[in-house]
Amino acid sequence: NAGVTQTPKFQVLKTGQSMTLQCAQDMNHEYMSWYRQDPGMGLRLIHYSVGAGITDQGEVPNGYNVSRSTTEDFPLRLLSAAPSQTSVYFCASTPTPHGQPQHFGDGTRLSIL
Amino acid sequence: GENVEQHPSTLSVQEGDSAVIKCTYSDSASNYFPWYKQELGKRPQLIIDIRSNVGEKKDQRIAVTLNKTAKHFSLHITETQPEDSAVYFCGGGGSNYKLTFGKGTLLTVNP
């Protein structure tokens, strides 16, 4: 049982490039979410999904797209990277968002030059 | 939406002392309040959580209290040890699929 797996762990991009951050969980959790973590800002919700085929925006969705074709996978796409998207990205999953702890992945450290 | 404020942003204590971190929330419908510990370069990990039908919860040296009327909850760590040094985050939510986090408290326990 690997829990929540994120790839890659580190990535450097140039402004304007696109990339996909991968997130997979093997706990059969319905609810998955993406957060970004910036110094002094805590964890801010980007997008979330309550099940396969269902996604919604969080607090800071601009510049990011998501899809949820399977229960296991929840990729985050940056279509045209900007320096403001330099951050640490965490994926999390939980069986239900109503009163259950979230399980975080190890994070992806992304730098946009 | 929910707004969670956390204080203090930094806290320094001597080993063996107690540490208290406080959070307030805005949405009276929120019913789930977790606390996460994050060591440098690592993932956030749940240390304790409380639901709105409970006023206090303890787990060894860690306790959380919740005051629904005042919309605030606190993390208490007793007999602090150097390995307690980390960033602690509070969270609030559970009513609308979203969990909102405070900005974090950097706790330093000095030997």
Explain what the structure shows:
The mean pLDDT of chain A is 94. In chain A, the strands form two sheets. In chain A, strands 2, 4, 5, 6, 9, 10 and 11 form a seven-stranded mixed sheet that branches. A four-stranded antiparallel sheet of chain A has the order 1-3-8-7, with no helix packed on it. Chain A is 0% helix and 51% strand. Chain A contains no helices and eleven strands. Chain A is mainly beta and 113 residues long. Chain A is globular, with a radius of gyration of 13 Å. Chain B is mainly β and 111 residues long. Chain B has strands at residues 4-7, 10-14, 19-25, 32-38, 45-51, 56-59, 62-67, 72-77, 86-93, 99-101, 105-110. In chain B, strands 2, 4, 5, 9, 10 and 11 form a six-stranded mixed sheet that branches. In chain B, strand 9 (86-93) and strand 10 (99-101) form a beta hairpin. The A-B interface holds A 31, 33, 35, 40-45, 48, 50, 56, 58-59, 90, 97-102, 104-107 and B 1, 6, 9, 31-32, 34, 42-46, 49, 51, 89, 93-95, 97-104.
Secondary-structure blueprint of this entry?
The complex is a heterodimer of chains A (113) and B (111).
Chain A: E1 4-7, E2 10-13, E3 19-25, E4 31-38, E5 42-51, E6 54-57, E7 64-66, E8 76-78, E9 87-94, E10 103-104, E11 108-112
Parallel strand pairs in A: 2-11
Antiparallel strand pairs in A: 1-3, 3-8, 4-5, 4-9, 5-6, 7-8, 9-10, 9-11
Chain B: E1 4-7, E2 10-14, E3 19-25, E4 32-38, E5 45-51, E6 56-59, E7 62-67, E8 72-77, E9 86-93, E10 99-101, E11 105-110
Parallel strand pairs in B: 2-11
Antiparallel strand pairs in B: 1-3, 3-8, 4-5, 4-9, 6-7, 7-8, 9-10, 9-11
**Largest inter-chain interface?**
A-B, 25 and 25 residues
- What class would the helix/strand composition of chain B place it in? mainly beta
Distance between the termini of chain A: 36 Å
What is the oligomeric state here?
heterodimer
Q: In angstroms, what is the radius of gyration of chain A?
A: 13 Å
Class by helix and strand content of chain A?
mainly beta
Strand count, sense and closure of the main sheet of chain B? 6 strands, mixed
DSSP strand (E) fraction of chain A?
Answer: over 45%
How much of the residues of chain B is beta strand, in percent?
over 45%
Task: Tell me the overall shape of chain A.
Answer: globular
Number of strands of chain B: 11
DSSP summary: helix tally of chain B: 0
Instruction: Give the N-terminus to C-terminus distance of chain B in angstroms.
Output: 41 Å
Poorly predicted runs of chain A are none
Summed over residues and divided by their number, the pLDDT of chain A gives a mean of 94
Number of helices of chain A: 0
The string of secondary-structure elements of chain A, in order, is EEEEEEEEEEE
Low-confidence stretches of chain B: none
